[in-house]
DNA sequence: CGATCATTCAATATAATGATTGAGTAAGAG
DNA sequence: CTCTTACTCAATCATTATATTGAATGATCG
């Protein structure tokens, strides 16, 4: 795995870590785990892959040092081994947004169309929470909501949003969020709400970023 | 390259970027390029690989968005496309230092032995530059020194250090630095200087980090 | 223009990675 | 103790990555 000198050995070690990140499914797994620890089975269901395959990816990431796991009864729960792991994925995202033509294309094509208005910053949302001038909507699945969410947030998973529209105020502005800056759920939610005539905007990123920036959670 | 939804397309794009980082030689190339732009040939010589091989790696990284290039006469010069790229490699390093057992082993085995005293922080070095209580030693090759260095630094490439020892003061403390936090050159330099009875310590990281933190350069 | 130099491209062999399948293991339930 | 559940491991095959070689391109210089 390592060549001769300590220099090469170090770079090989860094490269191992990067390899562990270098797969779409693994990044997707990491995004879900950023919401809170999960069992292999739940993860597999969430991202639509066979359990054995997810188990392989998890093992690889654990070996590389990205993940930690604990056993509780029949279940094994995985989680990011370190907050620095989330900073690493954030750094990856930032570079990709700005410098990867493929990524910029997707952003320009899909996301831009659904987000004609500016997203709400964390700071601005904090202000609006204080003077109670916005309804915060969490569109993640309920188990992720249960593992932690923004203070005062209402949880309506995206798949239920259409038939539970009446639970939302028509006059107040709604701020939707989900797993992270490019999580599709919040984009879809905002688009749906606007089509139905509600005032909706999107939080600039998701729950993990909110939590990591030290803001209060529930 | 991308599967169905925009979500998968995005993750695939992020993964492409991570793949471009996921090779020891490519990280080594990036470390050199972090010092300043370089031609393919010089790079190949610096890290000891065939030119064609380096060219392949460079093309791959440029396509992924990590690098930019410009042609000048017969030479093509490559450089990191964005300061965020260096932040990304720094994030990778941080996670590896703390969570990769392989990396921790190399650090514990090789580097720790050569660095029994604490490294000097950028802040501390700034203070000591102001009251002129330390000699700053840049042990990188002269072309990297020429492309930018710490103010007042003396350049003695590591390979010349032994025979140019008399150029260094025996009474003042010497602070050595090179390309980055785990660059071997500075470690070796400090070890050599101490063996010869000089007072030497290592800067906590290298020139790119100094520059990126906004401190003055020459 | 032809020679030379720096770089890239194309072709190839070798090696590593990823998904799938089915068997294996650990913990709890009955 | 056996059965079920949740996960991991091992083996396979298809795909993709890497290094090497030699040929092709692009730019300068005599």
Concise structural overview:
Two copies of one chain form a homodimer. By secondary structure, the first copy, chain A, is of the alpha/beta class.
Give the topology.
The structure is a homodimer of 218-residue chains.
Chain A (H helix, E strand, L loop, with lengths): L5 H16 L2 H10 L4 E2 H8 L3 H14 L2 E6 L2 E6 L2 H17 L1 H11 L10 H9 L3 E5 L3 H5 L7 E2 L2 H4 L11 E5 L6 H12 L4 E3 L4 H6 L6
Parallel strand pairs in A: 4-5, 4-6, 6-7
Antiparallel strand pairs in A: 1-3, 2-3
The first copy, chain A, binds a DNA duplex (30 and 30 nucleotides) through helix 4.
Notes on the structure:
With 218 residues, chain A is an alpha/beta fold. Chain A has helices spanning 6-21, 24-33, 40-47, 51-64, 83-99, 101-111, 122-130, 142-146, 158-161, 184-195, 207-212, and strands at residues 38-39, 67-72, 75-80, 134-138, 154-155, 173-177, 200-202. Chain A folds into two domains: 5-85, Orthogonal Bundle (Arc Repressor Mutant, subunit A), CATH 1.10.10; 118-212, 3-Layer(aba) Sandwich (Oxidized Rhodanese, domain 1). Chain A has a four-stranded parallel sheet, sandwiched between helices. In chain A, strands 1-3-2 form a three-stranded antiparallel sheet. The relative contact order of chain A is 0.11. At the A-B interface, helix 1, helix 2, helix 5 and helix 6 of A face helix 1, helix 2, helix 5 and helix 6 of B. The structure holds a DNA duplex (30 and 30 nucleotides).
